[in-house]
Amino acid sequence: MPSVRFPAEFFRRIDESSDADFYVEPRLVTHIDDATIAALTQLYREMLPAGGAILDLMTSWISHLPPEVEYARVAGLGMNRIELERNVRLTDFVIHDLNATPELPYPDGAFDAVVNAVSIQYLTRPIEVYASVRRVLKSGGVALIAMSHRCFPTKAILAWHSTSAAERIGLVQLYLQDAGGFGPVELIDRSPPGGADPLWVVSARRI
Predict the structure, then answer these.
(1) Which of 38, 76, 148, 159 is the most buried (most CB within 10 A)?
(2) What is the chain's alpha carbon radius of gyration, rounded to the nearest angstrom?
(3) Cβ contact 91:73 at 8 Å
(4) How many distinct structural domains can be found in the chain?
C-alpha cells in the first residue's frame, strides 16, 4: 500500500543493510530521559484500558506501562530476543522485521490498543504497517505513537533527518490518515518542563 503522497526517497536510510544484522546485539538502554518516561507512563495510565489486550510495537526491554495496572495481555513485537526476554511486562512476544514484512502476525481485532514508543522513525513502510495495526485493533481501539527527538541516525528514514519536529508530527498524522480506517487523528503534547526530552503522541482510534 505505497502512498502517492510521499516519494520513495522519504523512506531511504543512511544504512540500508539488513535490520536483522543491526539489531542482533541487545541495546539495554532507554531512549528518552526519566521525566519523559514518566510522562509517557502517565499517558498510558490515562489512555490504555486496564484489563485490556495491548500490543507494544517495535518494543525492547522496557514497555513503560504503569506498573500498578494489570492487562489481560501485553504482546511485544521487536527485533532482539534478549531485549524481549528481559521485558517483564510482556505476556508473549515475536521477533518480526516490519520493514521486511509490514503485515502483523496477529488475527483481526486482537487488541484494545497498539502502542509505539519512539520508534516510528525507523519504519520504511509505515502506511502498510498502520493499515495492519488498524486490522488487529478492535473497533474503537486506539493507536498511540509516541515521538521525541532521539534516534539511531543511520537507521532513521531520510524524512526524519530533513524535517522539523512539527513536520515530523504532521508526517505521522498523515501515515494514519493514509492507512485508512481511523477516526480523527489527534496530537497530545506531554513534553515535561525543565529541559527534558520532548514527548509528542499521535493518537487515533479504529472506526
Answers:
(1) 76
(2) 16
(3) yes
(4) 1
Interacting residues of 15 by C-beta distance below 8 A, sequence separation 6+: 22, 154, 155
- Pairing label, strands 111-117, 200-205: unpaired
Residue 72 located in a structural domain: yes
**Of 74, 48, 76, whose CA–CA distance to 61 is shortest?**
76
For the stretch 141-166, what's the b/e string if a residue is b when 16 or more beta carbons lie within 10 angstroms of its beta carbon? bbbbbbbbebbbeebbbbbbeeeeee
User: What pTM does this model have?
Assistant: 0.92
Range of the domain at 118: 8-205
Which of 142, 134, 145 is closest to 205 using CA atoms? Answer: 142
Cα dihedral sign, 94-100-105-108 = positive
pLDDT of residue 82: 95
Asked if 100 contacts 19 with a C-beta cutoff of 8 angstroms, the reply is yes
What is the C-alpha separation between 89 and 61, in angstroms, rounded? 9
Strands of 137-147's sheet in order across: 92-95, 73-78, 53-57, 111-117, 137-147, 200-205, 186-189
Measured distance CA(154)–CA(173) in Å, rounded: 23
| Burial class for 181, CB neighbours closer than 10 Å (0-12, 13-18, 19+) | middle
Cα-based distances in Å from 32 to 58, 118, 200: 15, 8, 12
The x, y and z cell numbers of residue 186, run together, are 489527534
- Give the CA diameter of the chain: 44
Residue 1 in domain: no
pLDDT digits (tens, 9 = 90+) for 149-190: 777 778 889 888 888 989 999 999 999 999 999 999 999 999
